Amino acid sequence: MHDARALIEMGAEAVRRLARRGYSLDLSELESLQSRRNQNIRSSDELRAESKRVASEVQQTAKQGGDIGKLKERARELKDQIREIEAGQEEIEAQLRDLLLSIPNLPDDSVPDGDSEEFAVEIRRVGTPPAFAFEPKDHVDLGEATGILDFGRATKLSGPRFAVSRGAGAALERALATLFLDLHTRRHGYTEYAVPYLVTRKTMTGTGQLPKFEEDLFKTGVADRELFLIPTAEVPLTNLYADEIIPPAELPLAMTAHTPCFRSEAGSYGRDTRGLIRQHQFAKVEMVKIVAPETADAELETMVGHAEACLKELGLAYRVIKLPAGDTGFSAQLTYDIEVWIPSQNTYREISSVSNFGTFQARRANIRTRGEDGKPKLVATLNGSGLPVGRTLAALLEQCQQQDGSIVLPESLFPYLGFRRIKADGTPEA
């Protein structure tokens, strides 16, 4: 969320930067709402001052035995005028807030132009995609052939875009999540949290999922209570500090959590609807940082390294790209995507997005710290996937598959699994 005054002061520069991400800012509408709001505040203050003066005159005149009839009539008129202005002010404030909530974050100047991944800038490639002496299978065929994944029975239970894992598959999912949590808490300095999976509308609004992305969220409720299923642990982790002032000495805050994530994936189609790439429910280990704004750029680079460390532990080939302005998420000002190699598709596919939101989310959620002068100021927030379990499992099965249909697993997983190989029949083997 933006400060209306800051956007107005930026003027054409704000219009230009937002246009890079495909958003047309109506500066005249924003200026009009802000002007009406300010005028109403001035008028309200003037009327309250006059009301206070008249009330004082009523008391003084009454003590002196004078006629207070006209003064009391004026006091009533002032109260009516104040109520009228306050009602109008509430309407203007709501219109201004709705407009500001719909405006995406300003893209960082270093972000390339463009509106799709083809305009992304590749930063680096790590590892060599495996070369096979046979036609590699996709993770769906591998999972079903070994019996460790069952999409048919998942569809019977819940419809399409769900999965059931079994035996070594379920153990592998648990091992991946635990490995990622251990890396982040023991090596990277994050504190692990267990958080609610159902949150309020206010909480969703704080991180930018609402109001814009309501169609992509699962919602439930009991009686008059409305709750949303989290699309990522970013939502509860960031909002833990909503409406708080964090002491500067406590920054940076580094948080991680392993949660299910729920998304309708509206608009996705084709190859992404098969298997584990885009599901309505999936598990993910999330990283969130709340930091002083001046350190956010450096923290972003560090967080990208933390997500990469998970892939390096597994020996998976991947690349890092910087997303263009038009493909950067609503709340982010700069995003790096990490893409893992998927042999069956002969390409890299997103497995993690790591973003710097600047003060955008902090303004929405009212998360502050104190500056050197002791006055409250907004913090900066960052988040990244570290990593999603399902997509990692898909890449692992495909990159580690053998010609006989077995899967040879990375050594880093052995302490969590107790086996190094999944045979073609799904049996684990030490």
Secondary structure topology:
Layout: H1 4-10, H2 12-19, H3 27-63, H4 69-102, E1 121-126, H5 139-146, E2 149-150, H6 151-158, E3 164-165, H7 168-187, E4 191-192, E5 198-199, H8 201-206, E6 219-222, E7 225-229, H9 234-239, E8 244-245, E9 253-262, E10 281-291, H10 296-314, E11 318-322, E12 334-342, E13 347-356, H11 360-365, E14 367-370, E15 376-378, E16 380-388, H12 389-399, E17 407-408, H13 414-417, E18 421-422, E19 428-429
Parallel strand pairs: 4-9, 8-14
Antiparallel strand pairs: 1-11, 2-3, 5-7, 6-7, 9-10, 10-16, 11-12, 12-13, 13-16, 14-15, 17-18, 18-19
Provide an overview of this structure.
With 430 residues, the protein is an alpha+beta fold. The protein has helices spanning 4-10, 12-19, 27-63, 69-102, 139-146, 151-158, 168-187, 201-206, 234-239, 296-314, 360-365, 389-399, 414-417; strands at residues 121-126, 149-150, 164-165, 191-192, 198-199, 219-222, 225-229, 244-245, 253-262, 281-291, 318-322, 334-342, 347-356, 367-370, 376-378, 380-388, 407-408, 421-422, 428-429. Strands 1-11-12-13-16-10-9-4 form an 8-stranded mixed sheet. Strands 5-7-6 form a 3-stranded antiparallel sheet. It has a 3-stranded mixed sheet with strand order 8-14-15. The model has no long low-confidence stretch (mean pLDDT 96). It is elongated and about 105 Å long. The chain starts with a helix and ends with a strand. α3 runs antiparallel to α4 (69-102), α5 packs across α12 (389-399) and α7 (168-187) crosses α12 (389-399). The chain is built from 13 helices and 19 strands. Helices cover 40% and strands 21% of the residues. A hairpin with a 5-residue loop joins β18 and β19 (428-429).
